Each structure stands twice: as C-alpha cells, then as structure tokens.
Amino acid sequence: MSQPVRTKMVPAPSHGILPERDVNERPVLEARNLGIDFGGLHAVEDFNLIIGRTEIAGLIGPNGAGKTTVFNLLTKVYQPTMGTILINGKDTAGMDTAQASMMGIARTFQNIRLFSNMTVEDNVRIGLHNQFRYNMFSGILRLPGFWSSERRMHERSMDLLSIFDMQDMAGAIAGSLPYGAQRRLEIVRALATNPSLLLLDEPAAGMNPHETEELMDNIVRIRDRFHIAVMLIEHDMKLVMGICEGICVLNYGRIIAKGTPEEIQNNPTVIEAYLGRQKEG
Amino acid sequence: MSKKTIDKLLTFGMVIAAFIVCQVMIANGAMSRSLRGQLIPICVYIVMAVSLNLTVGISGELSLGHAGFMSVGAFSGVVMAMWLKNGLGVSNTLICLSAALVTGGLFAGIAGVLIGIPVLRLRGDYLAIVTLAFGEIIRNVMNCIYISIEGSSLHFGFVNPKLPGKLLVNGPAGATGVAKMSTFVMGFVLVMITLLVVLNLIDSRSGRAIMAIRDSRIAAESVGLNVTKYKMMAFVTSAVLAGMAGALYGLNFSTITASKFKFDTSILVLVFVVLGGIGNIRGSIIAATLLTVLPELLRAFSDYRMLVYAIVLILVMLATNNPTLRTFFSGLKPGKKSSAAKEGKQ
Ligand SMILES: Nc1ncnc2c1ncn2[C@@H]1O[C@H](COP(=O)(O)OP(=O)(O)OP(=O)(O)O)[C@@H](O)[C@H]1O
Ligand SMILES: [Mg+2]
C-alpha cells in the first residue's frame, strides 16, 4: 500500500482533536467522563473522546485495557456508571442497545456474532430491518408491501455485499463461511443499519497480511462511499498507523495518550505501556 | 424459484395430497373406523406441533406449557359454540365451529400475552420451568370454573357450582353435553391456516428478526431489533394457534375435562417437535401424524410410549447441554448444509 496522505488534525472544542475537514460539522460521537465499574474494578474511567463526522479513529491498548468495554458502553450493552455519550449531538442516557443502533451506531464483535444458522443475505436483510418496514400481517398475507420491501431489501443487500465481492455467497449459511468472510459479513451487516459511526472490534484478527491490506483499503473506501466515521480497535499496528487519523490509547481503563499516528508512535508513555518500563539512562 | 419457496410448496403439497387421499379413502369406505376417529386429533396435534415449533425451534425458547394454551382454547371455544347453539339458537354448525376457533385463538392469545410478559424476561431453563408451572396453573384454574347457560345469557362461577340454568362447564368434571361439531375438513383448513401463518412468518421480516434473536441476542440488539417485541410475537402467535387447535379438539368430544391438557400433553407435543427436528416444520407435521396414528395401529406399542418419551427427553437434555451432540443434531436437520451449497447462486 502506498504511504497514506496524512490528514491535518486540529484541536477540537473539547477533549481532543478532529480532522480539519470535520471541524465545522457536529462530531459523530462525544464521550464525556465515561466510566464503568464491575464490582469495584474500574474497567473504564474518565474516558473523553470526540470523533469527527468522517474520521477514521483508532482505539488501541494492551490486552484487558478496556477497549471492548468502551464499545460495549457506546452501544449500551453496558450502562455506564458515570459520564455522557452523545451520538450526533443527542444524549443516549437511558437508551438500550437497539435504540443506540437506531441513533446511528453500528458495530462488529471481537468474537464474531453472526446469525449463524441463517443465510448471508438474511444476515444483511436483518441489518436492513429498520429501514424497510412492513408489519407482520403484510408478511403473513403476502400483501403488496411485503413484495416491494423484500425486493428493495434484496437489491440493497446485494449492493452492500458487493463491497466485499460477496454476492456469490448470498445463499450460503453464514456459520459455514470461512473466518475472514464471516468478519467481512459482520461489517456488511453493520453497514446495512445505515450508521453514522461504525465500530470495528479487531476487524483484522485472524486475517493474513494480504487480507489485512485489502481490509485497510476497504475501510477507507467504506468511509468515503458512505461518509461515515469509523472507530476501530486493532492490535495490528500496521493497520492502525496506516489508516487511522486520530488514535486513542487506553491502559488499565484510562486514556494515556491521544493524537495522530506520528504522535502516538513517538509518545514515551505509550511505548512504556506496550513495552514495559524502559531502563533509565 | 428460491429453495425456500420450493420447500414451502412441498410442505403444502404434502398436506393437501394427504387430505385428498384421506377423503378418497373415506368415500370408498377404505378407512377403518378407528383411523377415521383419529383424523381430527391428527389435525389438532399437527397444529400443536407446528405452533410449538415456532416457539421452540424458530424463537429458540423451550416452552413446556403448550397444553395450557390448548386448554384455554378448548374451554373458551366450547363455551362459545354451545352458547351460540343453545343460547342464541344458531343452528349452522359451521358458524358455531368457526366462532369457536376464533374465540379459542383469541383467549389463548390473551393468555399468551399475560404469560409472555413475565416469562419472556427469563432465559433458558428458567423459562422452561415457568412455562411448565403456567401450564399447570391454567389447568388448575380450569378445574375451578363453572359456566352455565340460561336462556341466551351465560353465567360464570369460580369455585361455585350453584349457577342458574343448565351447567355447561362443571369444574373438575369439565364441559359435558358438548355437541361434536368438529369436522375433518375444518381440521384440514386449520392445518393450512397454521402452515400459512408459520411458514410465511418465518420467511418475512418479522420471522427473520425472531430467528436472528435466537441465533444471537446481542447481535440482534446491535442492529436495532426490539427483542421483547419479536419474542412476544412468536410466543403469542404460537399460543393463538394452540388455542384454535384446542377449540377444534374440544368440539370433537362430548365431554372435555381439564385433565386432558396435563403436562403429559405438553411433553407429547414437544416430543413431536423434537422427533420431527427442531425448527423443521415439515418434520413436525410428519412426526405428529405418525406418533398420533402409531399407538392406534400398534396397540401393543402403546405400552412403550412412555419409555420412548423418557428416552427422547433424556436425549433432549443431553443434546442441549452437550456441544458434540448438539452439532450432531443440527447436522440431522434436513436442508441445512445442503441448502448452503445449492442456494449459492440463486
Ligand atoms: N462483564 C464484565 N464483568 C466483569 N469484568 C469485566 C466485564 N467485561 C470486561 N471486564 C473486565 O474489564 C477489563 C477490560 O476488558 P476488555 O474486554 O474491555 O479488554 P480489551 O481491551 O478489549 O482486551 P482485548 O485486547 O484482550 O480484547 C478486563 O479486566 C475484563 O476482565
Ligand atoms: Mg477486546
């Protein structure tokens, strides 16, 4: 892959930085003082983050740092014990996961969670659930609403699957797909919900270097095509440093650094967190 | 035509063909009396099994109280039919029977909503235990209900048998003097309605949502599905269909008691579902038919029925707790692996 063109990052009104092109738009996500305790364990504490409308952001940190927990907080799988989450400027306090999804937040899972007994296309159609509506009775009685919605769902599913060249697999059972294809299908399903923020939890896990390069290209293309923000958790530094514009580093549930890839790479605290304390002198 | 459509047509075709064969046999006098007496119960159990499969196989909730809904449907349906016939003097049995089915479905549906609200908050084994308890509660409540018809008005009593007029539902003695209105044709129609509802539901937006929640609740929530709504939809639809089956069943006998809808009946229907394949609608139809007919045909075999139940139930428990067996059972489900390959390029 060619050397990425670096986005200029500028200070944002509160807690952080934004891509320069997104400064005049409302940020897609704002987390303020977010925190959660698991019976005394502060899994995430004092988490402040702002993500621009079309930013590709990275969330990194050693194992057990609390990265997945942040995703679970943002998607309301866990209710935060403190702090505020604004999605597109709206407070999500008291919402559940389904409502957060309807606010425009979509995600994939670290350990893949597909609807594994259903076909690939049905997995995508379920992602389209809230955009093509008809009620139970239209479905049972096969009223016109059923046919027109199903036809449009089919077209849209195929279109979305084509992002990863997966149209040929539309009829396959999702659970029977190879690992990499399952990860890609999860991204397609998340995109089907028409999100404004896509959260990817270790999208390159288990992929070979070639697949990872393709994934990097695809993440950027998805951002450009859908004009959405992407936030990804990843241990593959090549991917993170290659496509992320702003990076946030978590250690023991706390943010220890925020900045551009260059800033993060040269940040002594980050290096220490990853490599352990360096010898003095 | 997609594989799903072909599959569906095959199921309908099978039922219609069986119906025609039965009708021809009846017309030619080629069907034995005892088998003829089984036709309506077969239809009833098909509806019971298919509707329970909606809860157990499609929605993925183990319910052990399905006979409770059948009971509610049977009593409310019988009361409606007898009130129309004796109270209001409606002489057309088709009207009485249809009204009975609708009433049975309605009341069972209401029971489904009331039970579903607390029960669907529970998961796994707890849900099974609570549905079991609800099935028993419904049966015990039915044991205490007294209903009489006086002129065109109905009188209800709870634990109190002293009601004016002619007693129709007599507590533990059940409903007596019921006019046998059920017909095989109505049974067939009810089976077709059930298949239409369940098969079309599965292959639609709502049904996909129900199955998605079964496969991964968290993922389903993450794409914006309202879990409670769709669990409720499956549970209540299943209850309504069981209620209609109950009404048909109730009007097939001159006496109907609550003890006919015991835990055994729930388990019997569950056995149909498991033997036919969890989530496999056609399998439920075949299993319900064969297992209803078999004990009649092989009376000697009927002694072993309880043994078969026991074995099957132990297998079910093993299967739900043992990953190896679970994959073995899911491999047995027809059209699962093969459909993946075949549907690849539709
Ligand atoms: N539901 C929970 N209950 C109790 N503790 C939890 C829960 N979820 C996470 N934790 C704890 O919170 C901490 C952070 O976990 P988390 O899964 O967020 O880490 P992570 O950064 O995603 O790690 P990895 O890179 O291994 O995926 C861990 O110590 C974990 O044990
Ligand atoms: Mg994680």
Can you describe what's shown?
The complex is a heterodimer of chains A (281) and B (346). Chain A contains ten helices and twelve strands. Chain A starts with 8 loop residues before the first strand and ends in a 6-residue tail after the last helix. Chain A folds into two domains: 191 residues, Rossmann fold (3-Layer(aba) Sandwich), CATH 3.40.50; 77 residues, no CATH class. Chain A has a six-stranded mixed beta sheet, sandwiched between helices. Chain B has a single domain, classed as ABC transporter involved in vitamin B12 uptake, BtuC (Orthogonal Bundle). Helices cover 70% and strands 5% of the residues of chain B. A three-stranded antiparallel beta sheet of chain B has the order 2-1-3, covered by helices on one side. In chain B, β1 and β2 form a beta hairpin. The site of adenosine-5'-triphosphate (ATP) has 12 residues of chain A, from β4 and α1.
Assign the CATH class of the largest domain in chain A: Alpha Beta
Query: What is the count of distinct domains of chain A?
Result: 2
Oligomer: heterodimer
Strand order of the main beta sheet of chain A, please?
8-9-10-5-11-12
Number of domains of chain B: 1
> Which structural class fits the helix and strand makeup of chain B?
mainly alpha
DSSP strand (E) fraction of chain B?
under 5%
Hetero groups in this structure are:
adenosine-5'-triphosphate, magnesium ion
Straight-line N-to-C gap of chain B: 8 Å
The DSSP helix count of chain A reads 10
The overall pLDDT of chain B, averaged over residues, is 86
